[in-house]
Design a protein that fits this description.
single chain, 456 residues, alpha+beta, 2 domains, seven-stranded mixed beta sheet, six-stranded mixed beta sheet, disordered N terminus, disordered C terminus, DUF4403 family protein, DUF4403
Length: 456
């Protein structure tokens, strides 16, 4: 025991020679992230029947049927010309069409011919369904006819076969009219093409704010549709998209590889509003870039001592953010501050609360540079870090609202929306940035540009 006693006398001398010159850098560590929530975007589609009617009248006009041969067995020449607008009606299962026609008839009497005119309305009905491949399939059939004015001979009295004439006109014009109706529906409502184009687009990042390098990626997981509803002179349905959207503030994220369009699933949709959960990312690089604009070069004095901020670095330790501040001047080196991201329910802002020096930094400053603790440097950093997050999150709602005006999600398909609120649900740190779970609430409306301009 006596042999060890000299060592105890030497130990204080050895320790006094080990002078600490700078605080120890905190160790990086990160908690498990919150589980991402699936968001559902409802896209209501509303097609006024009068717009469909205008489009069909553009497609069908003039002579719809003409027979110029008296010697083909029916003893007649017939010309059927569209007389007025086609009228469309709907019921719960199908679309009906009334096609008014002016008729000109030349009838073979054997020794001479006679001309007659008349007016007839042909009625058609279109049934449709949507396959698992998102293709609209229609089938238009004749529903009947009604004479508005039976054929009358211009000269003399001749008993014309009125029923035969009606059947002849119907039989020979129904193919063209029914085909035209099916073509209009197929071309103007190419559902698969529209949905597939929108589906692929949702895998590409969208620049929401150029000023703050804010990118939205929708990341669709599934897409389906509600049953089609027809009534009150409108055709309505809702397309719903299950998504895991994310927002990144920083460099443009790489596009995700688009998955194939899933088979159509028809199911009821509850409500038309949406709540979109956005896993918003503020990269440390981007946070540092913006904070440096405000803080680099800032000097702080206390008496005859002063320091200047030369650099900033952000990283995580658990659920706290570490702010590594490099100083030059009376003190040269780093000091480390800790803060906790907290959601303020009253202001609806994300704030960095309880910013303080790390324990090792505090001990170092007490021993070597206590005057720094009396300066305003900590408060200045805290103000600018809060401003960074507050301003971006506050501005995000305005940027998203701007994107929801006249946004073309697919060729000719225009999206408009109203963003009612932005709530912050969770905040946590990852190895490369600060993550915030935002909940955006609002509603959307979809219109088809080509259809809506049919009457222009």
């Amino acid at each position: 025991m006596n042999r060890l006693r000299p060592l105890f006398f030497l130990l204080p001398l050895l320790l006094s020679g080990c002078k600490v010159t700078k605080p120890v850098r905190p160790m990086e560590s990160y908690e498990d992230p919150f589980e991402e929530q699936v968001s559902v975007i409802n896209l209501p589609i509303d097609i006024p029947v009068d717009e469909l009617q205008a489009l069909l009248n553009q497609q069908l006009y003039g002579t719809l049927y003409e027979d110029n041969n008296l010697r083909d067995g029916d003893k007649m020449m017939v010309r059927a010309v569209k007389q007025g607008d086609i009228e469309i009606g709907i019921d719960s299962q199908s679309i009906t069409y009334s096609v008014p026609l002016d008729l000109w008839i030349r009838y073979d009497l054997g020794i001479s011919t006679a001309e007659a005119t008349g007016q007839i309305t042909l009625d058609f009905k279109t049934g449709f369904d949507i396959g698992a491949d998102w293709e609209i399939r229609t089938q238009t059939a004749v529903a009947g006819y009604e004479w508005q004015q039976k054929p009358r001979v211009k000269m003399g009295f001749i008993d014309l076969p009125v029923g035969f004439i009606a059947d002849l006109v119907l039989r020979n014009s129904k193919w063209r009219i029914a085909t035209a109706i099916d073509d209009v529906v197929r071309e103007q409502f190419n559902l698969r093409k529209t949905v597939e184009e929108a589906w692929k687009e949702m895998f590409n990042p969208i620049l929401v704010s150029e000023d703050y390098n804010t990118w939205l990626t929708v990341n669709p997981q599934f897409i389906g549709m509600s049953p089609v509803q027809m009534g009150n002179n409108r055709i309505q349905a809702t397309i719903y998209v299950e998504t895991r959207p994310s927002v990144k503030i920083g460099q443009r994220p790489d596009p995700a590889f688009p998955r194939p369009l899933p088979p159509l699933r028809i199911s009821e949709v509850e409500g038309l509003d949406f709540t979109l959960h956005l896993n918003t990312k503020v990269s440390y690089d981007e946070a540092e870039r913006i904070a440096k604009q405000e803080l680099i070069g800032e000097s702080f004095s206390y008496g005859r001592r002063s320091v200047t901020i030369e650099d900033l670095e952000f990283f995580g330790q658990g659920n706290n953010i570490v702010i590594n501040t490099t100083l030059s001047g009376t003190y040269n080196g780093s000091i480390y501050l800790l803060g906790t991201p907290v959601y303020n329910t009253l202001s609806n802002k994300l704030e960095i609360k309880n910013i303080t020096y790390t324990l090792d930094t505090k001990n170092f400053l007490f021993r070597s540079a206590g005057w720094l603790m009396k300066s305003t440097i900590k408060n200045k950093i805290a103000e600018n870090v809060n401003f960074l997050l507050d301003y971006n999150l506050k501005d995000l709602q305005e940027q998203f609202q701007e994107q929801l005006r006249e946004y073309e999600v697919a060729t000719g398909v225009i999206l408009n929306g109203a963003l009612e609120a932005v709530d912050i649900r969770n905040a946590y740190l990852t190895a490369d940035g600060m993550m915030v779970d935002l909940a955006l609430k609002g509603n959307l409306d979809v219109r088809i540009r080509g259809l809506s301009s049919a009457q222009d």
